[in-house]
Structure formats: C-alpha cells, structure tokens
Amino acid sequence: MVNLVSRTGRHLQRYEKGYRLVVGCIPYRYKKSQEPTSVEELEVLVISAQNGQGMLFPKGGWENDECMEEAAKRETEEEAGVIGVVQEKLGPWHYKSKRSCIMHESYMFPLLVQKELDCWPEKNIRKRRWVSINEAREVCHNWWMREALEELLTKSKSPSTKLGNLEQMQQLLVN
User: Fold this and answer.
1) Which of 25, 55, 96, 108 has the lowest tally of Cβ within 10 angstroms?
2) Global pTM?
C-alpha cells in the first residue's frame, strides 16, 4: 500500500553546520536492445521540477525520524513513483538553494527500480521519463546531479561495486 500524501514542511528536516541535508536517488534499469547480439543498456529515470522548468532526479529533505537511505527511498517514491533497491551512497555535494540563501549538503543513491507505481503522491505535479545516460546529461539542470550521475557511472565500472550487470543485480534482488 502506497501512502498517497507527500511529507511537507521543514520542521522535521535535518540541518548540520548550517547546511540543510538533502538526499535522493538516481533510479535506473537495464533495457534490452532490439538487436539480439547487443548488451544491456542502462536507463535512468528523470522527473520534472515542481516549477516545470527542467528535469532532475528525485530528492528532498532528510528528516529526523529516518535514516539516510529511508529518506532517499521515500523521496523517490513520493516524487517519481518508483520502488527499488538502494545501493552505495554517492556524494556529498554542496550547493546554494535557488529560492533562498540556504546551503545544502546532498547525497544521492543509485536505485535499481523493481516497481513503477501507477499512482504516487506527486503524480499530478511531476512528469517522469526514462532516458539514456547521454540524454540525462543534457536534460538534468542541476550540476551536482550530473556529477552524481558521473560518479554512479564510474562506480558501475569498478569490479567491487554493487552496480553491475543485469545478472549481478538479479542476484542481489534474490538475496
């Protein structure tokens, strides 16, 4: 059962040394190419910004009653309507809010999508779209999110990372 209401307000959100702590996910999946000899292709899910200006990855405030991973998963479910397996933390990044002078410290997590929901809390205010890595680099308007994507890609090439080929990910889901 999905909670169809997003958490609102900032009274429960974490701040540390003057920074608002922000977490989110880079939802991804593997798409088989049409050619039988080709390898798996990675896609990421981007969502529209609340103001409709540009695309980004789901993220939001980390609240006092959650661990970092729980907050990232909650934000992803509320904003993008997907559920999955959270993997190794990426970050941190520091940036200034566009709407105020508040500084943020942000972390992102790769999230292997297991389920796309038909209804989610922000369905009526956000659009979601699966895109290639190259398209994500072009449409994502936050510099630090593009850097998080590059960090994810770097880690995905490392033999010690959890982000690997489809067979490795299916093993993780079984365990």
Assistant:
1) 96
2) 0.81
